[in-house]
Amino acid sequence: MRHRLLWPLPLLLAACGDTLWRDTGDRLVDLVAPAAAPLEDLPEPEGRALRLWLGGRATPAVLLQELGERRIWRTSGGIVVATEGGRVTATAGLRQMLAATRFEGPDPLARPAALLDHPAEARRLVDLMDANREPDGMRFGISLDCRLRAEPTEDAEVLLVRERCRSRGSSGFTNRFWVEAAGGAVIRAEQWVGPRVPMLVMEFLGPAG
Predict the structure, then answer these.
(1) Domain-by-domain residue ranges, the chain?
(2) Per-residue pLDDT averaged across 151-176, rounded?
(3) For residue 37, what pLDDT is reported?
(4) Rounded distance, CA 177 to CA 175, Å?
(5) What b-and-e string marks burial along 134-145, b requiring 16 or more CB atoms within 10 Å of the CB?
(6) Under 8 Å CB-to-CB from 30, ≥6 apart: which residues?
(7) DSSP 3-state of 161
(8) Distance (Å, rounded) from C-alpha 190 to C-alpha 87?
(9) Distance in angstroms (rounded) separating the CA atoms of residues 204 and 186
(10) Cβ–Cβ contacts within 10 Å for residue 115, how many?
(11) What pLDDT was estimated at residue 43?
């Protein structure tokens, strides 16, 4: 299925002399482009669809762009989420935004069945920024050490992957992914998207991968 590219993804070159986190010099994807299409002009959901919960309220999200494994979704309230497979890689429209996320090596979530017998460890680096994009609200290269393991559920066709992550000086958090046992596609997920916002819950109404 083809999807119209409704707006560009300009890159914001950010630099910040932060004393807590090293400035990696990475370019951040500005998901809320000034030329975004009016909400009433967004396409009606078809094919893949996404439902989001943030702070207990559910809202549907429209698929705006699809570039390989990367997909961009937007709610009618202006929240934008970028996903790769079933993992959130960036957000916008929140008081604190996940500007970028990357792994040192492959993402173990890509092979969930292998995590049943062999839990895996991974290191993620994330960039955060406040909604006002002021330099003092930007944090680059935050290191998260994560451990992933899978377990069966009552539904023989579904596995639950738990991802426990910690950063220096924090108590950490746990992401949960419900995935198809056969193909590994994420059906539902609860994910951390920043220390100052609630966990983001997503339900894919079609294959995530």
Answers:
(1) 11-204
(2) 92
(3) 38
(4) 7
(5) eeebbbbbbebe
(6) 9, 10, 11, 12, 92
(7) strand
(8) 10
(9) 7
(10) 21
(11) 46
User: Is residue 13 pLDDT above 80, yes or no?
Assistant: no
The rounded distance, in Å, linking the Cα atoms of 145 and 207 is 28
Q: Which CATH number is associated with domain 11-204?
A: 2.40.360.10
Contact 90, 71 (CB under 8 A): no
**Could you give the residue ranges of the DSSP H alpha helices within the chain?**
none
The residues near 79 (Cβ < 8 Å, ≥ 6 apart) are 52, 54, 59, 61, 91, 92, 93, 94
* Cα three-residue angle 100-105-106, rounded to 5 degrees: 90
List CB contacts of 104: < 8 A, sequence separation 6 or more: 122, 123, 124, 125
Mean pLDDT of the chain: 78
114 DSSP 8-state letter: G
Tokens 């990475």, residue located: 26
**Contact predicate 101/94, CB 8 Å:** no
Question: How many CB atoms are closer than 10 A to CB 175?
Answer: 21
pLDDT at 20 over 50: no
